Amino acid sequence: RSGAFARPDAVRARGAAAARISRGFVAAPGKSNKQTSMRRRVAPTTRAAASGDGERDDQPDNWELKYLYDGGCTVCNSLVKLLKSKRGHEKIWFEDIAAPTFAPDKNEGITFEEAMATIHVIKSKDNSILTGMDALTSLYDITGMGWLFKLAKLPVLSTAANVAYKMVSKNRQSMGSAADGLLALGRINMEEKGEGSCTDLEGECREKPPPVDEAADAAAKAAEERRAKIAAENAKNAAAATAGAAASANPVAKTGQGGLETAAQTPAAPTSGSLSDRRNILGVYDSRVSRSDKRAIRAAPVDTETGRLIDELITVPLEDSQLSTIAAAMTSIIKHFGWQGNVGIGLPGREIEMDQNVNETFDASDFDSVDGTFDEPPSPVFNEKKKATKTASGAGANARLADAIASTNAEVSGSRQSRLEIETYLRNATGRDVVVMSGPEATGFGEMRYGPAGAGDGTTVCVTLGKSIGVSLFDGGILAHNPADVEKQISTWNRGRWRDSALPRPPGEMEGDAVATDEDWARWAERVQHYLSRIEAVAQPDRFIICGRASVSFEKWVPMMKPLPGATPVLQAQQGLTAAVEGAAVGASEILTLRRDTARVRAAIGHQKGLSPQKLTDEQVGAVFDEFDEDGSGTLTIEELNNAIGRLNIKLTDVELKELFVEMDSEVTGDIRRNEFVGWWRDSIGSSSVEIIHTMEEFNQVLDDADGTDQMTVLMVGVTYCKPCKAFTKKYADFAERFSAARFIKVFGNENKDMTILCRDELKVKSTPTFYFFRNKDQVHMHTGANAGKFEKNILENVREGEPGYGSARLFEDPVEKEGEKKPAPAR
Known about the structure:
This protein is an alpha/beta fold. Helix content is 40%, strand content 14%. β5 and β6 form a beta hairpin. α14 (439-450) crosses α18 (579-609), α15 (484-490) runs antiparallel to α16 (518-539) and α18 (579-609) packs parallel to α23. The radius of gyration is 32 Å and the shape is globular. The protein starts with 15 loop residues before the first helix and ends in a 30-residue tail after the last helix.
């Protein structure tokens, strides 16, 4: 049994043993906790204070043993009832650790988490503390059941008791005292095995947590040491640069990194990140290995203000390109860095199908191949699987969609919805907030922030070149949606005419490679010029920036190109092959800020309408658009959007406003149309019946969305290893469909630091699953246990007339209340 949220991931290395030693416990060496009798060094004068001021109302006369039990656990209550039915029980003081009045200072300093970890008994005679088997033996001895320990050693009885215990503990009330022997034997057997005592899938989780991951702790410690060393070196270099600048005629010398005065910047202190930190982000880039279909991931934590890597850059080979493989690799990377913060990942763009009917944008030679036929690109598996699951609904549909996504290639398309689906899958798999973008976008973000001076002015097209081609378009330094016409221009990159025009390897790059001739470089230059000319005709950019592997040999082949028809300058990327890692982090930082602004605007509109944003229909969202459209033209300009946001009392910077405008303008028309606005709204709120929340900011935003709307929000708190939580998942989704006016959310308290703090410190969760009901922002109900009848009864009492599910027929039976069961803690 365990306190699920006792230790965040980052401090798990501080185990219970170390904590006990620091508080004065003395344990016999070489023994486990359940075999150890521990004596606290307590001075006689402190004992009264440790037991509280005077006798408590529930303190029995002449007690000899105090048994700390969990009143929220079915099997613990069964053991308490068994003990109370035996002669000698009057010498036991039964202390419920789940009661609101439980306090460590009244129980020899034993914390709730320690009491949950294993059975604890306090001896009145000398204030010593017994745990595990020693504690259980003392309870059985004092009630005359010590002889059962001899029977428990018999293999036949031991096995039978272990099986029967799980059934008896749930049904003892109806089976009576005839089951006492099996219950007692089974409890001994489980204690010997060190098993958790929660076996009731309709109850509360009292299982032991998974063992501390020593490898993860060691990796996190090593990462902290690396980051501290790197931070010290950066600080030293920054100090030297500042001193040099002060001694020169030009006090602050501009660097080549986008005009950032990085030489004068002070590096941030070393950090493992946090989900509220948008400065330090783990950048991840998934790329194809040169001249191969194999893929690998490069990753490093990045300080996005300075562009510095704050830890080492690592590369992880991938066995295949499936999204589940990417998720597994990201999990190992997060473990390697001990990373607790946000993650940005750049994934390869999905191959664009060429429309054979759009002949006016293509050269006839692009359709040529060796055998004179058109090379059909591979079918988009992701879309096919998405179509196959589109008609399903409920939790089953969400699970099937997740399975379909997991087995598809990890590639990004221009569809906002497909990106959100990939993000949701990766977030749930890693327990971190993950922002997905294409590889060219990641590279572009890096160049916009740290690349050539002036790159953020006007329109810039970043072209990532290597075995494949990808483009990202930035307007004033802000990522814009790639126009469909631009994507059509590059869809023929791997067609027949260019089969002998691959990017040559620079001299000496790979031992044994044939030396590339000038003719090889000229063919490559011709190929690049061809596609840059076509992109130029459509996008009319102010500059091209060549990124990716081709930027390494930029000076070798660019002089062989002819000037482009529009004379657009072609520049070399400044960040090299780390640009995509840095850019993935920068892009994540900017996109997370955009999502914060989106949530603020969305919540303000909901408050104005008196409804949660999730509950606005498409017609209502369209009516909001009509209100924003001041001149009734059917489109929104950036000025009209700015005026509307101002009326909502929201202040955005010019950059934030433009980012929001570009996000809404999905068709890249330069204005926002009604269907674009509605589509943006739907994509931003999601469509799942149950939302999994990963950050404190997300949780607070959910309550902010509901504030003033009278909406009910239902929260389920679980942990990843909780069997009752897993068993209730399908029922919870079904309740979400049935009571659809409420917003159903779910968190895992052991997922990351944010969730540990929320559940342990804010919500005071002591067992899982725990359910909370909110109206507006106020908590109105709380109960524990995965019992469908109990949940149904409570939600029917809290749903209001006119809301879906109100007054509906009961589908589950009321739970059988156990003797002495307490009411839930009052709402906070």
